[in-house]
Amino acid sequence: MTATVETTNPTTTTTARLECVKLSGGRGSALAFRDVDLKLAPGKVLAVLGPNGAGKTTLLLTLAGLLPSKGGNVLVDGARLRGGRPALASRAGLVLVPDNRCLFVGMSVEDNLKVAAKRGGPKPRELLETFPALERRWDLAAGALSGGEQQMLAMARALIQQPKVLLVDEMSLGLAPLIVEQLFETVGKIARDHGCSVVLVEQYAKLALDAADDGLVLSRGRVVLAGPAGELAGQVERLENLYFDAPEDKAG
Ligand SMILES: Nc1ncnc2c1ncn2[C@@H]1O[C@H](COP(=O)(O)OP(=O)(O)OP(=O)(O)O)[C@@H](O)[C@H]1O
């Protein structure tokens, strides 16, 4: 089964910021996800949900060019992106925030941002507008920050690269619910203020759908539910069944 997340209004927008057409991917010879179709407009947030092992992270890594695709296409602003080439994906504006954050823990907050800054792009201190909590940590080593602050820094470091599409993996991992809620709010603000599209891989289905415009649910590598976030949020029971691998939703 495939499904399409159509966030563009066909009467006003002809080109999606991010588009996947029958995209498949995995590691080695195994497919972790298959035939994923999606369209995401600038400034919109897509929540990618699903149980453990559903293929969510593999989808993000494939979009970021860190894994080769095994079929289908990825398009950014209508231009086809060659798979398996992280430098090309980065040049096309795809920026990944990995679940382990990958910060330089011995370097200060400022230096973590400096190494990612682009010529002509925002200066590190400009990121404090979006992440004011980092100001009082500015000179501290990233490794000395709390989990929530580290996640903010990881997001700020992605944002300083002026992404067209921000790919965020398990932003909430290991964080207190209150911090998670704040981060989700910030994601919505980033999409609106910076006009970038955000693909948000998450386990916290309810919070993610509250922050997203659209949702897509993977189960066993296949899209089993997709549509406006508000509609998916109204199907929490079906979502929960998927998480517990209910037989009716097995994609085979
Ligand atoms: N490093 C790896 N080597 C081989 N197979 C892997 C590796 N990482 C994940 N897989 C396999 O790929 C499939 C998809 O995993 P993936 O991590 O994309 O799922 P996920 O939906 O992100 O799950 P989770 O929420 O637990 O992170 C699973 O069958 C998993 O066992």
From TrEMBL:
Gene3D superfamilies: P-loop containing nucleotide triphosphate hydrolases
Domain ABC transporter: 16-245
Any single GO BP term: L-amino acid transport
Pfam families reported in the protein's UniProt record: ABC_tran
PROSITE patterns: ABC_TRANSPORTER_1, ABC_TRANSPORTER_2
Keywords: Amino-acid transport, ATP-binding, Nucleotide-binding, Transport
One Gene Ontology term of the molecular function aspect: ATP binding
InterPro entries xrefs: AAA+_ATPase (IPR003593), ABC_transporter-like_ATP-bd (IPR003439), ABC_transporter-like_CS (IPR017871), BCAA_Transport_ATP-bd_LivF (IPR052156), P-loop_NTPase (IPR027417)
Family: Belongs to the ABC transporter superfamily.
Name of the protein described by the UniProt record: ATP-binding cassette domain-containing protein
Organism expressing this protein natively: Frankia nepalensis
